[in-house]
Amino acid sequence: MELFSTSLSFCRVQSPPNPKLFHLRAISARVNGIGLGIRTLPGREWCDGSKSMAVSGLARASKREDGLPESLGGGILVGSSLTVMLAVMNRVLYKLALVPLKNYPFFLAQITTFGYVAVYFTVLYLRYRSGIVTREMLALPKSRFAAIGFLEAIGVASGMASAAMLPGPAIPILNQSFLVWQLVFSVLILGRKYSSNQILGCLLVTAGVIIAVASGSGGGQVMSQVELLWPALMIASAAFQSGASILKEFVFIDGAARLKQGKPPDIFFVNSFGSGFQALFVFLLLPILSNLRGIPFSELPAYLKSGAGCFLNFGGSLVDCRGAPLLPLLFIATNMAFNISLLNLVKMTSALVASLAATLAVPISIYVLSLPLPYLPHGTSLNTSFIIGSAILVLGLILYNLPKPKDELKI
């Protein structure tokens, strides 16, 4: 599972160096704790050496070479608007879900993780029965999924712990550091090369995050009452989950080489086992993670019991759990709806359009989270430094996703 920021990469379709090779098309997305490796059906397109993931050739809307649709029909506009709306709701409900469970973020992480395990394995079983997932695919090595689950478990637990302590507008800002970590790890692990506009975009994202975090240095600022530990923990959470997304991408590439006919592993096979190991490690790491919050191992059963009572809002002294279980359940349902909407938008248009839609949701989310909301009645004042940092960050995201010129050399 991952949080909030979405990095959808695409590449220019080229002639394959070997007609027998099939291009592995995947999109690495990171949304609210859910690591998505989105794969379309194998096709005959081939991506250049950057290993960036191409857009589905089966998309219903015809696209130009730069990844943008040739025309914006009503369906595309509705799909894009719905994706932006759900992305904003997703970010807002994430913060609201942690209001009643502020003292139990690890319990919410466990519930969310097990919920997705149930959904993924149910879909995996149906796809196995239909023949989409094969025995050969299920026999692929599971050690990499254990590594993915371990990184995602630390990422989602630390992300929820820090989000519970951070002001709402700071969360979508800090989560965009995922893009920077992803660039660094993909260069180190996958040997990927990036264009100059992508590198400049990441530098702007970094600068925007730094300026936004530095806005808390004075009294009355957005993050003036927040200890440096919490934004640092959120950025570290992005690093763990970015590493998990890179490992997922490696699983797709390596799986295509291991399986017959060069077909990549099914997306639900990868996500099911990744989420299964994630749920296992969240459970195993719970004593260590809770100890970091001052909860000794001997009090862990009582903590889980209190967390369950707060989640269900059942008990005589749970005055701080107002909004549960409605808000956590709304967050989980909205997160699933957003994931489906994002996948559908990629299918209708391209990864570029989906990425720009997710980027547009960032400033809207910052603004909405600064307003007085149910269970967050006081709102947050956005100072000038925070607004400038946010604007620089969004500019970096847009620049990163700009179509690359045909003749531009990779750096």
From TrEMBL:
Q: Which UniProt keywords apply?
A: Membrane, Transmembrane, Transmembrane helix, Transport
Q: Where found? A: Membrane
* Annotated source species: Rhynchospora pubera
Membrane topology label: Multi-pass membrane protein
Q: Name one Pfam family in it.
A: CRT-like
- The molecule here is called CRT (Chloroquine-resistance transporter)-like transporter 2
Family from the record: Belongs to the CRT-like transporter family.
Chain segments annotated as transmembrane = 72-94, 106-126, 147-167, 173-191, 198-216, 228-247, 268-289, 326-345, 352-370, 382-402
- Gene Ontology CC annotations of this record: membrane
Source species, domain of life = Eukaryota
Under the heading InterPro entries, the entry gives: CRT-like
